[in-house]
Amino acid sequence: MLSESQGMDAWALTDHGNGNGLAHAHSHAVKMQKAGKKFRQIYGVEFYFVPSLDQWTNDYTAHRQAIKDAKTASAAEKKSKEKIIIDADDESGGLVIEDEDESKKIDILKDEWKRRYHLVVTARNRKGLNNLFVLVKKSYKDGFYRYPRIDFKMLKEHGEGLHVNTACLGGIFSNRILRGVAHDKSRDEIQKDLLNLTDRFTDAVGIENFKLELQFNKLNKQHVVNDYLIEHHKLTGIPLISTADSHYPSNDKWQARELYKKLGWLGKKDNLTLPAFEDLKCELYPKNAQQMWDEFLEGYKEHDFYKGNEQLVKESIERTHDIVWNDFEDTWIDVSAKLPTISIPNKTPFKHLSDLVKNALISEGLHTNKEYVDRAKYELSDIKYLGHEAYFITMYEIFKKAETKTLFGPARGSGGGSLVNYLLGITQLDPIPYNLLWSRFLGRHRVSWPDIDTDAGDRDELINAAKELYGDDAVIPVSNFNTLKLKSLVKDIAKFYDIPFDEVNKVTGPLQDQVMQKAMDKNQEKSVFVLKHEDCMKYSPEYNEFMTTYPEVAEHVDTLFMQNRSCFTKDTHILTDRGYMDIEELNPVSDGIVYIDNEGNQKVNHDYELHYMGKKEVFEIETECGKKIKLTPDHEVMTQDGYKKVCELSESDILIKF
Q1: CA distances from 471 to 1, 463, 466, 580 (A)
Q2: Fewer CB within 10 Å of terminal CB in the chain, N or C?
């Protein structure tokens, strides 16, 4: 972010539906504060919100049942067209990418259950931050259908320490205003609807923790919303704040943002172009107070209701800054390790671990071998010094429980150098005959926690063992972010600008070998080396010449390098004709994907491609009975007009069969 260069001393990160970026924001804040700068990071989430998940679930269930109950072909066809087209965003591989153009649209005819509203929730203190993460978890566990949702009930249950504001045009306040205007409601009727929402939000988080949010852009609907929010402030006393909806870091990066949104469509849609600057309805970058005021003045010229309210707007801009320093605390999560409590009668955790190791030495016939006994004592001494006994006991319990259901590999990485790991059955390789070093794995010189990598015939058995021992909520999969690497990014951007592939490939092909030997640190392993734009500019004459010839590619590469392309977990399961399988284990040649047809019958599809690492976008198609299958854009499906590729489908198309 460039907010510091604009004279700002704080910013709030509120990604859509998740807190994936908050750890990066915290690292930035720590860096700023260590440099002696006055800086405060606000942690938040722009949640997807519905008033009642219970009502939403009932309405959605009723819709699905109505489809199933349709008796005639015409009725079924009519019902099948009532698709769930949710307002705002594009979801790519689990990573929600906000499409600001769509999020500003309001469809007044859309059924309430088809919606999800935006709601900005930020943490004022550590209690609030903990509640923020609880809401994220519950939104995925209890409120997920395509997108995670929260409702008033969740917000009230976990509202302590949180601050709420009404969000952008995608928020429920904006929707009630614009729907009311479209339906010719009076101002009093619309304000009555808003008052009902205000009462419920203030009941959930407290009147002092709820704000009405103004934004300024070229959208006429935004100014309509601002008009009603200013009036609502006068009626209720709920404070106004002014925010800058931000999707890119500075005002000169708008083209990179537009290109980023289009990368997933390369090869799937023709004639993709970037909009002209004059066509932008919203400049979505962080703005300081003067820039916010300048944006307001642009709207001030066009909308008379602002006249007489200049001071209110000025105060809302100042208040947005002031509440950060008056009402919010510098906070972060408790980063200490959370391990299961080891409770053995008349034994400390370390005594229990020592007994396990001792008994294993005896059972393996190694208790009379001084080398093994000394090595075990040495490792246990370090474990006790570092306070890691609970970690090793936890790993032992998981592997012990799973060992009757799956086979384990010998060892992987530095964990194979631990005799304790071997004796506890965590690894299957005796380190002594191979002179494997304990110090490479752990020791008093290492301040970080141990990390044991191992292979299992069925990884799910280890996961299930951990869940059975410690509970479902204590075991979570790790999300992997697939980022835009240099070579593929250069190819994608070059393709967007119609640069011949042969010319691009001639430059990118030899880059790895050409640059790595000159740019890599002498102590760095080849497997972790990452090609960087600046290294290639320095060490590859061909690359430098290419970027000089095509400066538009160089500009976007510099901005988009290492941006997230998609998010997934390797634990994602797909139902196939061989049962549930990890997504990475699928073999498109032999494995068929199970789906549900329009009659509710289970069928198997063998004609598909599935790329989960961002190489090819995966579309999710919902059948009439609510089931979903995933297909790639070039997969063809039968419609009323014949076969069409998935990427060519429109809302009017009827899927006949897969």
Answers
A1: 39, 11, 7, 22
A2: N
Instruction: Quote the pLDDT of residue 455.
Output: 87
b/e map 94-113, b = 16+ CB within 10 Å: bbbbbebeebbebeeeeeeb
- pLDDT tens, 313-348? 999 999 999 999 999 999 999 988 888 989 899 999
The sign of the torsion formed by the CA atoms of 454, 457, 458, 462 equals negative
CA separation, residue 282 to residues 101, 108, 169, 310, 512 (Å): 9, 22, 12, 21, 39
If you write DSSP's letter for every residue of 593-640 in order, what string do you get? EEEE-TTS-EEEE-S-----SSSS--EEEE-TTS-EEEE-TT-EEEET
Task: Spell out the SS3 assignment of 525-563.
Answer: CHHHCCCCHHHHHHHCHHHHHHHHHCHHHHHHHHHHCCC
Amino acid 645: pLDDT: 65
| Predicted confidence (pLDDT) per residue in 564-587, tens digit | 766 655 545 556 666 655 555 555
Ordered by where they begin, the domains of the chain are: 3-50+84-246+286-327 (3.20.20.140), 349-474 (no CATH), 570-657 (no CATH)
Written as one letter, the residue type at 440 is R
This prediction has a pTM of 0.76
Residue recorded with tokens 């590469």: 557
Q: In the predicted model, what is the mean pLDDT of residues 129-141?
A: 95
Contact 620, 652 (CB under 8 A): no
Helix (H, G, I), strand (E, B) or coil at 443: coil
Query: What phi and psi values does residue 57 have, to the nearest 5 degrees?
Result: -65, -45
CA distance 318 to 644: 54
The alpha carbon of 123 is separated from its chain's Cα centroid by a whole number of angstroms, namely 18
User: Structure tokens of 68?
Assistant: 């199933």
Can you tell me the distance from the alpha carbon of 318 to that of 313, in angstroms, rounded to the nearest whole number?
A: 9
pLDDT bucket at 96, cuts 50 / 70 / 90: very low
- Token digits for 623? 């059948």
93 pLDDT band (50/70/90 cuts)?
very low
Instruction: State the residue for tokens 């649209």.
Output: 105
146 φψ region: left (φ > 0), alpha (ψ -120 to 50), beta (else): left
**C-alpha closest to that of 10 among 282, 33, 239:** 33
Residue 532 neighbours by CB under 8 Å, 6+ apart: 486, 519, 561
Question: Could you report the per-residue pLDDT of 621-636, keeping only the tens digit for each?
Answer: 665 555 566 666 556 6
**What percent of the chain is helix, strand and coil (3-state, nearest 5)?**
45, 15, 40
- Yes or no: say if 239 and 212 are a contact pair by the CB < 8 Å rule: yes
Q: Are strands 480-483 and 240-242 parallel, antiparallel or unpaired?
A: unpaired
